[in-house]
Write a structure and sequence with these properties.
With 379 residues, this protein is α+β, with helices and mostly antiparallel strands. The protein has three domains: 128 residues, no CATH class; 59 residues; 83 residues, no CATH class. Helices cover 22% and strands 33% of the residues. The strands form nine sheets. It has a six-stranded antiparallel barrel with strand order 3-4-5-10-7-6. Strands 2-11-13-12 form a four-stranded antiparallel β-sheet, with helices on one face. The chain has a three-stranded mixed β-sheet with strand order 16-15-25, with helices on one face. A hairpin with a 5-residue loop joins β6 and β7. Keywords: Bacterial flagellum, Cell projection, Cilium, Flagellum, Periplasm, Signal. One of its GO terms (biological process) is bacterial-type flagellum-dependent cell motility. Belongs to the FlgI family.
């Protein structure tokens, strides 16, 4: 091959590599919305958890329980429990003093279709001045529902998952030692009756209410069944006509169908932690943004003036003051064109060098100017 041909081929190959490299850095086309299962965005109406609560005692603590002299409810509960077990302590109630017992609240969620004999997890939280529940044992505690009936009974060794140690001159604590959990710590004694069989219709409840999503769910179900089986009655509810179908099999079939959920353009701001979450549909109209603060920093570094030996002078402190002014003049006004996307908005604000705290103020100002085409939620 001639030298000229070789040089041309080399140049062409280099151009191809350069073009491929440039294409790899070009922004991709609009992202395709991902479809999700109906199972992941809806719940069957009526199939839900029920909250349970109870009051009990944790015993066996290593001196980290409640002070019986100040925690009156712990003292009364301990006396009542011992009397039920045949131990009379009222004659010597004044001498009853221990730090190995703590009064606690026990909470749990009773899942749908839980049958008697099944086990559920429970959470245990101290009520009094106990400092650590680690190593304790929860004694039999009835768990009540909203109707006052007992639906489960809890008992077992608690586990805090926290570390707490204290010495004469220091202490360390990781986690919350006054809150604990007991895996499978309660036995269900009564079930909440609910049956899917024999119902003429069943309603699906969307976890994120939206008219478009509800309509898409109904359309996907009707397309799968080949009939008008589902109707979106409101932004949260899709009604299903059973028509004598097996409810379990029918629900298992439709929950695997996939739809593309829609979402509202929303900006969620939590000022306490400086957290900002913006949805993909957030758009901004044409707006100019400038951000900057005047910072004056004064630093005092006094120095000691020491006279020469035998000079008769005195040692004095000489003040030295350094003043710095930062007007952030390098910051410039940023212009965001109308209809920019979330990615362009974040890129433009980051170019101004703003942090999360300043970004919250900017977004609030942009919303006040009517340029933020999204719903803003402050928490």
């Amino acid at each position: 091959m001639a030298k000229k041909d070789f040089a041309r081929a080399k140049t062409a190959w280099a151009a191809v590599l350069a073009a491929a490299w440039l294409l790899s850095w070009l922004p991709a086309g609009p992202a395709v919305a991902q479809s999700v299962r109906i199972k992941d965005i809806t719940d069957v109406e009526g199939v839900r958890d029920n909250q349970l609560v109870g009051y009990g005692l944790v015993v066996g603590l290593a001196g980290t329980g409640d002070r019986l002299r100040t925690a009156i409810f712990t003292r009364q509960s301990l006396i009542g429990m011992l009397e039920r077990l045949g131990v009379n302590t009222r004659d010597n109630e004044a001498r009853l003093d221990t730090r190995n017992v703590a009064a606690v609240m026990v909470t749990a969620n009773l899942p749908a279709f839980a049958r008697p004999g099944s086990r559920i997890d429970i959470a245990v939280s101290a009520l009094g001045d106990a400092t650590n529940l680690q190593g304790g044992t929860l004694v039999v505690t009835p768990l009540l529902g909203a109707d006052g009936e007992v639906y489960a009974v809890a008992q077992g060794a608690v586990a805090t998952g926290a570390v707490a140690a204290r010495g004469a001159a220091g202490s360390i604590q990781r986690g919350v030692p006054t809150s604990a959990r007991i895996a499978s710590g309660a036995i269900v004694e009564r079930e909440i009756p609910y049956s899917l069989a024999g119902r003429p219709s069943i309603r699906l409840s969307l976890r994120n209410p939206d008219l478009t999503t509800a309509r898409r769910v109904a359309a996907a179900i009707n397309q799968s069944t080949g009939a008008t089986t589902a109707i979106a009655t409101d932004p949260r509810t899709v009604a299903l006509a059973m028509g004598g179908r097996d409810p379990v099999g029918f629900l298992a079939q439709i929950e695997q169908l996939r739809v593309e959920p829609d979402q509202v353009a929303r900006v969620v701001i939590e000022e306490a932690s400086g957290t900002i979450v913006m949805g993909a549909n957030v758009r901004v109209s044409t707006v100019a943004i400038a951000q900057g603060n005047l910072t004056i920093r004064i630093t005092e570094t006094p120095q000691v003036s020491q006279p020469s030996p035998l000079s008769g002078g005195e040692t004095r402190e000489v003040p030295r003051t350094s003043i710095e002014v930062d007007d952030q003049s390098e910051r410039r006004v940023g212009l965001l064109r109308g209809g920019v996307s979330l990615q362009e908005l974040v890129r433009g604000l980051n170019a101004l060098g703003v942090g999360p705290r300043d970004l919250i103020t900017i977004l609030q100002s942009v919303k006040a100017a009517g340029a933020l085409q999204a719903e803003m939620e402050l928490r």
